[in-house]
User: Which sequence fits this backbone?
Protein backbone atom coordinates (compact mmCIF):
# COMPACT_ATOMS: atom_id res chain seq x y z
CA UNK A 1 0.00 0.00 0.00
CA UNK A 2 1.09 3.53 -0.73
CA UNK A 3 0.51 5.29 2.58
CA UNK A 4 3.65 7.32 3.35
CA UNK A 5 4.37 10.38 1.22
CA UNK A 6 7.49 12.51 1.40
CA UNK A 7 7.41 15.97 -0.20
CA UNK A 8 10.73 17.53 -1.15
CA UNK A 9 10.98 21.21 -2.02
CA UNK A 10 14.11 21.75 -4.06
CA UNK A 11 16.20 24.92 -3.95
CA UNK A 12 18.39 26.69 -6.47
CA UNK A 13 22.03 27.67 -6.00
CA UNK A 14 23.56 28.36 -2.59
CA UNK A 15 23.73 32.14 -3.10
CA UNK A 16 20.02 32.44 -3.92
CA UNK A 17 19.27 30.08 -1.05
CA UNK A 18 21.19 32.24 1.42
CA UNK A 19 19.45 35.42 0.22
CA UNK A 20 15.99 33.87 0.50
CA UNK A 21 16.69 32.51 3.97
CA UNK A 22 17.55 36.01 5.17
CA UNK A 23 14.53 37.63 3.54
CA UNK A 24 10.83 36.88 4.08
CA UNK A 25 11.30 33.13 3.83
CA UNK A 26 8.06 31.22 4.36
CA UNK A 27 7.08 27.57 3.87
CA UNK A 28 5.92 26.50 0.41
CA UNK A 29 2.19 27.09 0.88
CA UNK A 30 1.26 25.22 -2.31
CA UNK A 31 2.91 22.03 -1.07
CA UNK A 32 1.32 22.48 2.35
CA UNK A 33 -2.14 22.59 0.75
CA UNK A 34 -1.50 19.33 -1.11
CA UNK A 35 0.00 17.68 1.97
CA UNK A 36 -2.97 18.76 4.09
CA UNK A 37 -5.46 17.26 1.63
CA UNK A 38 -3.56 13.96 1.76
CA UNK A 39 -3.44 13.98 5.56
CA UNK A 40 -7.17 14.63 5.62
CA UNK A 41 -7.59 11.41 3.62
CA UNK A 42 -5.50 9.35 6.03
CA UNK A 43 -2.05 9.47 4.44
CA UNK A 44 1.14 9.97 6.46
CA UNK A 45 3.05 12.97 5.14
CA UNK A 46 6.48 14.49 5.75
CA UNK A 47 8.04 17.60 4.16
CA UNK A 48 11.73 18.29 3.53
CA UNK A 49 12.38 21.87 2.43
CA UNK A 50 15.86 22.09 0.89
CA UNK A 51 15.67 25.87 1.07
CA UNK A 52 16.00 25.88 4.86
CA UNK A 53 17.33 22.42 5.75
CA UNK A 54 21.00 21.51 5.53
CA UNK A 55 21.98 17.95 4.63
CA UNK A 56 25.07 16.14 3.50
CA UNK A 57 24.34 13.62 0.75
CA UNK A 58 24.72 10.82 3.30
CA UNK A 59 22.49 12.60 5.82
CA UNK A 60 19.82 13.17 3.18
CA UNK A 61 19.74 9.48 2.25
CA UNK A 62 19.54 8.54 5.93
CA UNK A 63 16.59 10.91 6.38
CA UNK A 64 14.71 9.21 3.55
CA UNK A 65 15.58 5.78 4.87
CA UNK A 66 14.31 6.73 8.33
CA UNK A 67 10.91 7.89 7.04
CA UNK A 68 10.75 5.08 4.44
CA UNK A 69 8.24 6.72 2.05
CA UNK A 70 6.26 4.84 -0.58
CA UNK A 71 6.22 7.81 -2.94
CA UNK A 72 8.08 11.10 -3.12
CA UNK A 73 6.54 14.28 -4.47
CA UNK A 74 8.85 17.06 -5.57
CA UNK A 75 7.83 20.64 -6.32
CA UNK A 76 10.08 22.08 -9.05
CA UNK A 77 10.61 25.69 -10.02
CA UNK A 78 12.55 26.47 -13.18
CA UNK A 79 15.64 27.93 -11.50
CA UNK A 80 15.80 24.89 -9.19
CA UNK A 81 15.35 22.31 -11.96
CA UNK A 82 18.99 21.24 -12.30
CA UNK A 83 19.42 20.73 -8.56
CA UNK A 84 16.09 18.90 -8.38
CA UNK A 85 17.16 16.41 -11.05
CA UNK A 86 20.39 15.69 -9.18
CA UNK A 87 18.34 14.93 -6.08
CA UNK A 88 15.93 12.70 -8.03
CA UNK A 89 18.80 10.70 -9.52
CA UNK A 90 20.36 10.30 -6.07
CA UNK A 91 17.09 9.04 -4.64
CA UNK A 92 16.49 6.51 -7.41
CA UNK A 93 20.06 5.25 -7.18
CA UNK A 94 19.54 4.42 -3.51
CA UNK A 95 15.81 3.61 -3.46
CA UNK A 96 14.77 2.00 -6.75
CA UNK A 97 11.28 1.07 -5.57
CA UNK A 98 10.21 4.53 -4.41
CA UNK A 99 7.93 6.20 -6.94
CA UNK A 100 8.75 9.82 -7.78
CA UNK A 101 6.12 12.35 -8.86
CA UNK A 102 7.05 15.93 -9.76
CA UNK A 103 4.83 18.99 -9.94
CA UNK A 104 4.89 22.76 -9.83
CA UNK A 105 5.11 25.42 -12.56
CA UNK A 106 8.10 23.99 -14.40
CA UNK A 107 6.72 20.47 -14.46
CA UNK A 108 3.36 21.75 -15.68
CA UNK A 109 4.83 23.29 -18.82
CA UNK A 110 7.89 21.09 -19.40
CA UNK A 111 6.49 17.79 -18.14
CA UNK A 112 6.67 15.80 -21.39
CA UNK A 113 10.25 16.91 -22.01
CA UNK A 114 11.14 16.01 -18.43
CA UNK A 115 9.73 12.51 -18.84
CA UNK A 116 11.68 12.07 -22.07
CA UNK A 117 14.95 13.25 -20.55
CA UNK A 118 14.81 11.89 -16.99
CA UNK A 119 13.98 8.21 -16.74
CA UNK A 120 13.98 8.38 -12.94
CA UNK A 121 10.75 10.41 -12.92
CA UNK A 122 7.67 8.17 -12.72
CA UNK A 123 4.89 10.78 -12.87
CA UNK A 124 4.38 14.43 -13.66
CA UNK A 125 1.44 16.23 -12.04
CA UNK A 126 0.36 19.32 -13.96
CA UNK A 127 -1.50 22.41 -12.75
CA UNK A 128 -3.22 22.20 -9.35
CA UNK A 129 -1.94 19.18 -7.47
CA UNK A 130 -4.33 18.53 -4.60
CA UNK A 131 -6.76 16.11 -6.21
CA UNK A 132 -4.49 14.80 -8.95
CA UNK A 133 -2.00 13.61 -6.34
CA UNK A 134 -4.79 12.15 -4.23
CA UNK A 135 -6.27 10.25 -7.17
CA UNK A 136 -2.82 9.01 -8.22
CA UNK A 137 -2.42 7.47 -4.76
CA UNK A 138 -5.87 5.94 -4.99
CA UNK A 139 -4.90 4.44 -8.35
CA UNK A 140 -1.66 3.03 -6.95
CA UNK A 141 -3.52 1.47 -4.02
CA UNK A 142 -6.56 0.27 -5.98
CA UNK A 143 -5.49 -0.12 -9.63
CA UNK A 144 -8.38 -2.42 -10.47
CA UNK A 145 -10.89 0.20 -9.37
CA UNK A 146 -9.19 3.36 -10.61
CA UNK A 147 -7.35 3.08 -13.89
CA UNK A 148 -4.43 5.43 -14.44
CA UNK A 149 -6.19 6.94 -17.44
CA UNK A 150 -8.74 8.39 -14.97
CA UNK A 151 -6.07 10.45 -13.20
CA UNK A 152 -6.48 13.74 -15.06
CA UNK A 153 -3.55 16.17 -15.47
CA UNK A 154 -1.10 13.27 -15.09
CA UNK A 155 1.82 12.38 -17.36
CA UNK A 156 3.20 8.85 -17.11
CA UNK A 157 4.87 6.07 -19.08
CA UNK A 158 3.01 3.22 -20.72
CA UNK A 159 5.58 0.77 -22.03
CA UNK A 160 7.75 2.88 -24.36
CA UNK A 161 5.20 5.68 -24.72
CA UNK A 162 4.71 8.84 -22.69
CA UNK A 163 1.03 9.45 -22.02
CA UNK A 164 -0.42 12.85 -21.14
CA UNK A 165 -3.91 12.53 -19.68
CA UNK A 166 -6.52 15.20 -20.28
CA UNK A 167 -6.42 18.26 -18.10
CA UNK A 168 -8.34 18.35 -14.83
CA UNK A 169 -10.68 21.27 -14.29
CA UNK A 170 -9.63 23.88 -11.79
CA UNK A 171 -10.91 23.75 -8.21
CA UNK A 172 -13.85 26.14 -8.09
CA UNK A 173 -14.87 25.94 -4.43
CA UNK A 174 -11.58 26.84 -2.73
CA UNK A 175 -13.29 27.00 0.67
CA UNK A 176 -13.46 23.19 0.70
CA UNK A 177 -9.67 22.88 0.95
CA UNK A 178 -8.33 22.27 4.46
CA UNK A 179 -6.06 24.84 6.08
CA UNK A 180 -2.36 23.93 5.84
CA UNK A 181 -1.22 21.78 8.76
CA UNK A 182 1.37 23.88 10.57
CA UNK A 183 2.98 20.98 12.37
CA UNK A 184 4.51 19.63 9.16
CA UNK A 185 7.18 22.36 9.10
CA UNK A 186 9.60 23.66 11.71
CA UNK A 187 8.70 27.26 12.52
CA UNK A 188 12.25 28.07 13.70
CA UNK A 189 13.70 27.41 10.25
CA UNK A 190 11.69 30.20 8.60
CA UNK A 191 11.85 33.97 9.02
CA UNK A 192 8.05 34.01 8.65
CA UNK A 193 5.46 31.28 9.13
CA UNK A 194 2.14 33.13 8.83
CA UNK A 195 1.24 33.08 5.12
CA UNK A 196 -1.95 32.42 3.14
CA UNK A 197 -3.15 31.94 -0.40
CA UNK A 198 -6.73 33.17 -0.78
CA UNK A 199 -7.28 33.04 -4.54
CA UNK A 200 -6.15 31.34 -7.72
CA UNK A 201 -6.26 32.30 -11.36
CA UNK A 202 -5.49 35.68 -12.86
CA UNK A 203 -7.59 37.94 -15.09
CA UNK A 204 -4.47 39.67 -16.40
CA UNK A 205 -2.64 39.10 -19.69
CA UNK A 206 0.93 40.08 -18.81
CA UNK A 207 3.25 38.49 -21.36
CA UNK A 208 6.05 37.84 -18.84
CA UNK A 209 3.89 35.94 -16.32
CA UNK A 210 2.78 32.28 -16.31
CA UNK A 211 0.10 32.69 -13.63
CA UNK A 212 -2.80 32.62 -16.07
CA UNK A 213 -1.41 29.59 -17.90
CA UNK A 214 -0.81 27.79 -14.60
CA UNK A 215 -3.99 28.63 -12.69
CA UNK A 216 -6.47 29.73 -15.36
CA UNK A 217 -7.87 33.07 -16.47
CA UNK A 218 -10.87 32.91 -14.17
CA UNK A 219 -10.27 34.53 -10.79
CA UNK A 220 -11.29 31.99 -8.15
CA UNK A 221 -11.31 33.01 -4.53
CA UNK A 222 -12.02 31.93 -0.98
CA UNK A 223 -14.73 33.71 0.95
CA UNK A 224 -13.84 36.46 3.39
CA UNK A 225 -15.23 34.33 6.22
CA UNK A 226 -13.01 31.40 5.27
CA UNK A 227 -9.90 33.59 5.18
CA UNK A 228 -10.70 35.12 8.56
CA UNK A 229 -11.11 31.64 10.01
CA UNK A 230 -7.60 30.72 8.87
CA UNK A 231 -6.09 33.99 10.12
CA UNK A 232 -7.72 33.49 13.50
CA UNK A 233 -6.64 29.84 13.61
CA UNK A 234 -3.00 30.53 12.73
CA UNK A 235 -2.73 33.50 15.07
CA UNK A 236 -4.01 31.46 18.00
CA UNK A 237 -1.60 28.64 17.14
CA UNK A 238 1.49 30.78 16.57
CA UNK A 239 0.88 34.22 18.12
CA UNK A 240 2.67 35.64 15.07
CA UNK A 241 1.86 39.32 14.60
CA UNK A 242 2.53 39.59 10.84
CA UNK A 243 0.91 37.64 8.04
CA UNK A 244 1.28 37.77 4.28
CA UNK A 245 -1.26 37.04 1.57
CA UNK A 246 0.61 35.51 -1.37
CA UNK A 247 -2.09 35.88 -4.02
CA UNK A 248 -0.86 37.31 -7.32
CA UNK A 249 -3.57 39.94 -6.88
CA UNK A 250 -5.47 39.87 -3.60
CA UNK A 251 -7.62 42.90 -4.45
CA UNK A 252 -9.41 41.80 -7.66
CA UNK A 253 -12.79 41.33 -5.94
CA UNK A 254 -13.32 44.60 -4.09
CA UNK A 255 -16.41 43.51 -2.13
CA UNK A 256 -14.51 40.48 -0.77
CA UNK A 257 -11.58 42.65 0.28
CA UNK A 258 -13.86 45.13 2.02
CA UNK A 259 -15.65 42.34 3.86
CA UNK A 260 -12.36 40.73 4.88
CA UNK A 261 -11.07 44.06 6.22
CA UNK A 262 -14.31 44.58 8.17
CA UNK A 263 -14.15 41.08 9.69
CA UNK A 264 -10.47 41.43 10.54
CA UNK A 265 -11.24 44.56 12.55
CA UNK A 266 -14.11 42.79 14.28
CA UNK A 267 -12.07 39.79 15.45
CA UNK A 268 -9.66 42.33 16.94
CA UNK A 269 -6.42 40.35 16.98
CA UNK A 270 -3.12 42.28 17.08
CA UNK A 271 -1.80 41.57 13.60
CA UNK A 272 -0.50 43.57 10.67
CA UNK A 273 -0.32 42.19 7.15
CA UNK A 274 0.76 42.65 3.57
CA UNK A 275 -0.55 41.72 0.16
CA UNK A 276 -0.09 42.21 -3.57
CA UNK A 277 -2.31 44.27 -5.83
CA UNK A 278 -2.62 45.49 -9.37
CA UNK A 279 -2.70 49.27 -9.55
CA UNK A 280 -5.75 49.34 -11.81
CA UNK A 281 -8.04 47.65 -9.26
CA UNK A 282 -7.09 49.96 -6.40
CA UNK A 283 -9.39 52.84 -5.53
CA UNK A 284 -9.00 55.47 -2.83
CA UNK A 285 -11.83 53.81 -0.91
CA UNK A 286 -10.18 50.38 -1.13
CA UNK A 287 -6.82 51.80 -0.07
CA UNK A 288 -8.52 53.25 3.02
CA UNK A 289 -10.18 49.88 3.74
CA UNK A 290 -6.79 48.17 3.65
CA UNK A 291 -5.15 50.83 5.78
CA UNK A 292 -7.90 50.77 8.41
CA UNK A 293 -7.53 46.98 8.69
CA UNK A 294 -3.79 47.33 9.42
CA UNK A 295 -2.52 46.35 5.99
CA UNK A 296 0.93 47.90 6.30
CA UNK A 297 2.59 46.71 3.08
CA UNK A 298 1.38 46.43 -0.52
CA UNK A 299 3.40 45.12 -3.45
CA UNK A 300 2.34 46.74 -6.73
CA UNK A 301 3.84 45.72 -10.05
CA UNK A 302 4.49 48.70 -12.31
CA UNK A 303 7.09 46.94 -14.53
CA UNK A 304 7.97 49.82 -16.87
CA UNK A 305 8.18 53.59 -16.91
CA UNK A 306 7.02 53.81 -20.52
CA UNK A 307 3.34 53.65 -21.46
CA UNK A 308 3.92 52.10 -24.90
CA UNK A 309 5.90 49.27 -23.31
CA UNK A 310 3.18 48.75 -20.71
CA UNK A 311 0.60 48.44 -23.49
CA UNK A 312 2.71 45.96 -25.43
CA UNK A 313 3.39 43.69 -22.46
CA UNK A 314 -0.32 43.46 -21.60
CA UNK A 315 -0.06 45.24 -18.26
CA UNK A 316 -3.32 47.12 -18.89
CA UNK A 317 -2.55 50.04 -16.61
CA UNK A 318 -2.20 53.76 -17.21
CA UNK A 319 1.19 54.75 -15.83
CA UNK A 320 0.24 58.12 -14.41
CA UNK A 321 -2.92 56.78 -12.75
CA UNK A 322 -0.96 53.85 -11.28
CA UNK A 323 1.76 56.10 -9.89
CA UNK A 324 -0.85 58.46 -8.42
CA UNK A 325 -2.40 55.54 -6.51
CA UNK A 326 1.03 54.44 -5.29
CA UNK A 327 1.72 57.90 -3.90
CA UNK A 328 -1.77 58.16 -2.41
CA UNK A 329 -1.31 54.88 -0.50
CA UNK A 330 2.19 55.89 0.60
CA UNK A 331 0.99 59.28 1.87
CA UNK A 332 -1.81 57.56 3.79
CA UNK A 333 0.78 55.51 5.67
CA UNK A 334 1.04 52.19 3.81
CA UNK A 335 4.51 50.95 2.90
CA UNK A 336 4.54 50.45 -0.87
CA UNK A 337 6.90 48.19 -2.78
CA UNK A 338 6.92 48.68 -6.56
CA UNK A 339 8.52 46.14 -8.89
CA UNK A 340 10.01 46.86 -12.30
CA UNK A 341 11.36 44.68 -15.12
CA UNK A 342 14.28 45.62 -17.33
CA UNK A 343 14.65 44.00 -20.76
CA UNK A 344 11.10 43.52 -22.06
CA UNK A 345 11.00 42.23 -25.63
CA UNK A 346 9.95 45.75 -26.72
CA UNK A 347 12.36 47.68 -24.48
CA UNK A 348 14.94 50.07 -25.92
CA UNK A 349 17.71 52.06 -24.29
CA UNK A 350 15.32 55.02 -24.20
CA UNK A 351 12.47 53.12 -22.52
CA UNK A 352 14.81 51.62 -19.93
CA UNK A 353 16.12 55.11 -19.17
CA UNK A 354 12.50 56.18 -18.62
CA UNK A 355 11.99 53.22 -16.30
CA UNK A 356 15.09 54.14 -14.30
CA UNK A 357 13.91 57.75 -14.07
CA UNK A 358 10.49 56.56 -12.82
CA UNK A 359 12.20 54.39 -10.23
CA UNK A 360 14.40 57.28 -9.15
CA UNK A 361 11.39 59.52 -8.68
CA UNK A 362 9.53 56.90 -6.63
CA UNK A 363 12.61 56.21 -4.54
CA UNK A 364 12.91 59.90 -3.71
CA UNK A 365 9.28 59.83 -2.53
CA UNK A 366 9.93 56.98 -0.10
CA UNK A 367 8.71 54.05 -2.20
CA UNK A 368 10.60 50.75 -1.92
CA UNK A 369 11.75 49.35 -5.25
CA UNK A 370 12.47 45.96 -6.77
CA UNK A 371 14.25 45.57 -10.11
CA UNK A 372 14.43 42.33 -12.09
CA UNK A 373 15.59 41.25 -15.51
CA UNK A 374 13.01 39.98 -17.97
CA UNK A 375 13.01 36.20 -17.57
CA UNK A 376 11.06 34.05 -20.08
CA UNK A 377 9.87 31.27 -17.81
CA UNK A 378 8.04 28.27 -19.31
CA UNK A 379 4.33 29.00 -19.67
CA UNK A 380 4.82 32.69 -20.40
CA UNK A 381 3.85 34.28 -23.71
CA UNK A 382 7.37 35.58 -24.22
CA UNK A 383 8.82 32.07 -23.80
CA UNK A 384 6.35 30.37 -26.10
CA UNK A 385 6.52 33.11 -28.75
CA UNK A 386 10.10 34.31 -28.39
CA UNK A 387 11.04 33.97 -32.06
CA UNK A 388 7.92 35.76 -33.31
CA UNK A 389 8.43 38.77 -31.01
CA UNK A 390 12.17 39.01 -31.61
CA UNK A 391 13.33 37.92 -28.16
CA UNK A 392 16.61 36.02 -28.09
CA UNK A 393 17.08 33.62 -25.17
CA UNK A 394 20.75 32.96 -24.34
CA UNK A 395 20.40 30.60 -21.39
CA UNK A 396 21.84 27.09 -21.78
CA UNK A 397 20.71 25.68 -18.43
CA UNK A 398 17.49 26.08 -16.48
CA UNK A 399 19.44 27.32 -13.46
CA UNK A 400 20.20 30.48 -15.42
CA UNK A 401 16.52 31.47 -15.31
CA UNK A 402 16.69 33.88 -12.38
CA UNK A 403 15.38 37.43 -12.07
CA UNK A 404 18.83 38.79 -11.24
CA UNK A 405 20.52 37.13 -14.21
CA UNK A 406 19.87 38.67 -17.68
CA UNK A 407 19.46 35.94 -20.30
CA UNK A 408 17.67 37.76 -23.15
CA UNK A 409 18.32 40.35 -25.83
CA UNK A 410 16.31 42.00 -28.59
CA UNK A 411 17.06 44.02 -31.72
CA UNK A 412 17.65 47.18 -29.68
CA UNK A 413 19.38 45.75 -26.62
CA UNK A 414 22.27 43.35 -26.34
CA UNK A 415 22.79 40.98 -23.43
CA UNK A 416 25.64 43.20 -22.24
CA UNK A 417 23.35 46.25 -22.40
CA UNK A 418 20.86 44.54 -20.09
CA UNK A 419 23.59 43.42 -17.71
CA UNK A 420 24.87 46.98 -17.49
CA UNK A 421 21.41 48.41 -16.87
CA UNK A 422 20.51 45.79 -14.28
CA UNK A 423 23.78 46.41 -12.46
CA UNK A 424 23.10 50.14 -12.64
CA UNK A 425 19.67 49.57 -11.14
CA UNK A 426 21.03 47.39 -8.33
CA UNK A 427 23.85 49.80 -7.58
CA UNK A 428 21.77 52.96 -7.61
CA UNK A 429 18.67 51.70 -5.83
CA UNK A 430 20.02 49.07 -3.44
CA UNK A 431 23.67 49.76 -2.69
CA UNK A 432 23.05 53.50 -2.65
CA UNK A 433 26.10 54.70 -4.57
Assistant:
Amino acid sequence: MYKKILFIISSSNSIARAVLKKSNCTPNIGVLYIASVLKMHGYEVKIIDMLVEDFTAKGFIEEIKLFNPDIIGMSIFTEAYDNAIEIIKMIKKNFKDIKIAVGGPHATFEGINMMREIEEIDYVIRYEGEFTFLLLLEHLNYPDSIGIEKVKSLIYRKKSDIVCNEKRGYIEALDVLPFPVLGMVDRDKYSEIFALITSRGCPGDCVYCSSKAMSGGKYRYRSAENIISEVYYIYNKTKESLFEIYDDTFTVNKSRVKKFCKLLKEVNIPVIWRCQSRADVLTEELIHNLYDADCKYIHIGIESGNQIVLDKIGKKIKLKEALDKVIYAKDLGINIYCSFIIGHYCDTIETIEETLETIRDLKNKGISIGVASCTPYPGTFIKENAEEIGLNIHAKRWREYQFGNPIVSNKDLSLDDLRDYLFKGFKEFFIGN
Observations:
- The mean pLDDT is 91.
